[in-house]
Structures are given as C-alpha cells and as structure tokens.
Design goal:
Elements lengths: L2 H7 L26 E3 L6 E3 L4 E2 L2 H21 L8 H21 L1
Antiparallel strand pairs: 1-2, 2-3
Helix pairs in contact: 2-3
Amino acid sequence: MKLATVALSLGLALSASAAKNLQNFDGDLGAAAPAVNNVGGDRPFQVDGNAAFDNLNAALVRSCDVQNNLCSNAVNSGEVDDVEVADCQAQQDDCIANADAAAAAN
C-alpha cells in the first residue's frame, strides 16, 4: 500500500517532504525547477511556493516557468557566469517538453 493511502486512511497529513516530487526535469541552469506535489483536493498539483492546479501538465509547465524566471534573474543579476538569458529559454523549452511527456505518461 502506498504511503499516501496509509496516511489518508489513518487520518494523517503528509508533509511536503514526504510527498513525491512529480517534477522530474533535472536541468538546473541558474536554478532548479520547483517541486510539484500531489496534495489532493480539487486542485491537487501544487507547485512549491506557487499555485495549485487541477492537472499535472499545467503544474509542471508552471514549475518550468518559475525556473525560467529564476534563471533569467540569476543571469541579469550576475549571479551566474557564462550563461545568457537565451540559455535559460532553451532550458525552459526542454523543461516544457519533459513536462508534456511526463503528463502524457500519467
């Protein structure tokens, strides 16, 4: 039986750290993509530090968008060397392609 099923049957809430991160894109140029967790309810797919969505693809794409913003901010502030905003955009394109494939597989 899955941990989430056991926890729910016992009336326990899972902490964010116990939840499985559904965002499996591993690019981390400038920043990693925020975690996406299934927290249940009407809008079960929660992007860490951001919004909740009713479908996985939308949540994964938002995670990619947040990563792109963090990467661009890191480039523009000089926090990362030898990286351009165009590199962040290319990473976002890869992240979204990964999100589409991951959502289609679920």
